[in-house]
C-alpha cells in the first residue's frame, strides 16, 4: 500500500533518515548525559556541558541541513512529475 501511495519511496526514506537518525544518534545522547550528570558531575569548569552543547549544536545543524535537502528533493520530484530519479 505504501509503495502504491508513494511512488518515490527512496525520497521519503531519506527524509525519515535525516530526521530520525540525526536526532537519535547525535542530539539525544548529549542531552541525556547532561540531564544524568547535572549539576555536580560535569567535570572541572563544566567542560562536559560545553562539549555536549557543541555536539548538540552540530547535530541541529546536520538535522536542519539534511531535512532541508530531503524536502528540497521531494519538492523537485513533485514539480518534475515522472522525471524524478531516486
TrEMBL record:
Transmembrane segment boundaries? 6-28, 49-71
Where it mainly occurs, coarsely classed, is membrane
Q: So which residues are the signal peptide here?
A: none
Lineage: superkingdom = Eukaryota
Q: Where found, per UniProt?
A: Membrane
Which keywords describe this protein according to UniProt? Membrane, Transmembrane, Transmembrane helix
Where does the Amino acid transporter transmembrane domain start and stop, copy by copy?
2-69
Q: Does the keyword Kinase apply?
A: no
> Single GO cellular component annotation?
membrane
InterPro entries linked to this entry: AA_transpt_TM (IPR013057)
The answer on whether this UniProt entry bears the keyword Translocase reads no
Q: What is this protein called?
A: Amino acid transporter transmembrane domain-containing protein
Q: Which organism is it from?
A: Rotaria sordida
Amino acid at each position: 500500500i505504501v509503495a502504491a501511495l508513494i511512488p518515490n519511496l527512496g525520497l521519503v526514506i531519506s527524509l525519515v533518515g535525516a530526521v530520525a537518525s540525526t536526532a537519535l544518534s547525535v542530539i539525544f545522547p548529549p542531552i541525556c548525559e547532561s540531564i544524568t550528570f547535572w549539576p555536580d558531575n560535569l567535570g572541572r569548569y563544566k567542560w562536559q556541558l560545553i562539549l555536549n552543547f557543541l555536539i548538540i549544536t552540530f547535530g541541529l545543524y546536520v538535522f536542519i541541513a539534511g531535512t532541508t535537502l530531503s524536502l528540497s528533493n521531494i519538492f523537485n520530484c513533485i514539480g518534475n512529475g515522472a522525471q524524478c530519479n531516486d
